[in-house]
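Section 3.1: Structural characterization of target chains.
Under the original work plan, the team committed to producing a structural model for every single-chain target entering the pipeline before any wet-lab resources were allocated. The record below documents one such target. The sequence was received from the expression subgroup and is listed exactly as submitted; it comprises 196 residues.
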Amino acid sequence: KPIDIYFHTYIATKPEGLKSLEEVFSWALQQETTPVFASEYARKALDFRRVVIARSATGWRVRGAEHLRTLRWPRSLGVPALSRSSGVAGYVEKGEGGYLHLSANQAELVFSPQVEALPRLVSANGQIIDYRRGRDGNVRWRLQAHVPLVFSLANSGSCRIEADGRPLEPSRRDGGITHYRLTDHAAATIEALCRR
C-alpha cells in the first residue's frame, strides 16, 4: 500500500500538531516500504492499465511491465517455478498467494505445486535493475534504492552472499529467509555464490 504524507506547515505552530506529526512519521518509518518519488509511483500506476497478462502453453506471459515490477498471484496456481520461468527474480508468499518480483518488462511464468530450493529475492526496498541466474547455480541481482539497501533472500543458506564483491553478513535469519542491510549503499550488485 502506498504511503504519502502531506501536511501544511501550520501544523507545526502548536505542540499538539507537532506531536501528531511525529506519531504519523514514526508509524510510517516502522512500515516495510520501498521509498519512491511520487512521479515514480505515478508511472507504476499508469503501467497497471498497460500491463498484459495472458495464458501461454506452459503458464503465463507478462508484457508491458515497464515500471510496475511486482505482481500478485493466487495460491491456486501453486508457487513460481524459477528454474522454468524467465524474467522473475524472486517472490514472497503472503496471504492467499504472493507477490512476484519481475526483473524485466516481460516475463514467462511457470507455476508448480512444490517450492524449488533455488536462491531467490524475497524482498528489497529498491528496484531490480538487473537479474541473472547462471548455469553454475550462482545468482546476481542489481538493486538500486533511494535509501541504503535492505533486502531478504530465501534458500541462500549454502551460498556466500556478496555486495559489489565484498562478503556480506546477515542482519538476521527467520527460518529459511536471510535478511541483509547495507548501511552505506543505495545501489549494489548482490551475488549469491552457491555450492552445488
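Helices lie at 15-30, 38-50.
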